[in-house]
Amino acid sequence: MLKVSDWAASQPVRPTRLAASRCLKFCEHKGVVFPGQDSQLLHSFPPGPPVPALKPGCVQVWYARWTERLADLNELAAVLAPEEQARAQRFRFERDRNRYIAGRAILRQLLSRYTGVPPAEIQLGYGHRGKPFLPACPELEFNMSDAGELLAYAFRLQMPVGIDIEVSRPQLDSTALAQRYFHPLEVRALLEEAPESRHAAFLRCWTRKEAFVKAIGEGLRFGLDRFAVPIREGEGCVLVDPSGGEPRNWKIFELRPGPNYFGAVVTREPVAGIVEWTVPRW
Q: CA–CA separation, 274 vs 282, rounded Å?
């Protein structure tokens, strides 16, 4: 997953297939959080249900702290596919390797809850920029992100979805990064912010933009200066068309999963809202 400080391109992996008979269990869920409601801190999000029921038009977001799963690392690594295990071994630093193992294993656990397929038997396909999908269940759209100790996952039926989270790092030169990578409309709006609020505005903008390019499966190679988003807290819920035409058919949901964290989910309209959970120990 690409972060503000990490511009390494994702490596696409050859798609694989699931048995066509193993597919999604459709049903409704309750407890949707609608736009405008304040996100809670991570520790106050309720644990998700053992069998999450996903309703068309809604997004389900899950959070986990990978540092709390280190005691289970061997068990988690065992459910990874051989290519995932090989990639884990290529990480130079143990922290990065552990985060990757926990992040991918929890993704498999969540996909297992949605599909009924055991985590180790889930076969993922990958788009041309490396975005994972389920070849046998393409109607289940999902995306993941990580920052600091936190992992975040988003799921939706039948519509693309992207998620990004970032941890606040005030030492970043937000203005310089924005001037280099953002659309001129966003740079102008950022410079209008008070100096003490500019870093938060930058992270809101970054997470919204990265969530969008992840939703469309292109990643940062798409070019962050090709489109604009609102940067102020609670400002607007749609992507801005820089040409001055009608807003694009995409919705932005702001996330605040914990202190010093910023995040966003972007998905296509129509969408009713989101529900946010923590991943329990199943």
A: 22
Measured CA to CA, the distance from residue 269 to residue 236 in angstroms comes to: 14
Helix (H, G, I), strand (E, B) or coil at 72: helix
Looking at CATH, the fold of the domain delimited by 42-46+58-159 is given as Ribosomal Protein L22; Chain A (3.90.470)
CATH 3.90.470 fits 167-255, yes or no: yes
Q: What is the distance between the alpha carbons of residues 91 and 279, in angstroms, rounded to a whole number?
A: 25
Q: What is the pLDDT of residues 129-147, one digit of tens each?
A: 889 999 989 999 999 999 9
- Chain center to CA of 137: 19
Output the pTM of the full model: 0.84
Helices 174-181 and 184-191: angle between axes, nearest 10 degrees: 160
Q: Are 215 and 162 in contact (CB under 8 A)?
A: yes
pLDDT at 115: 94
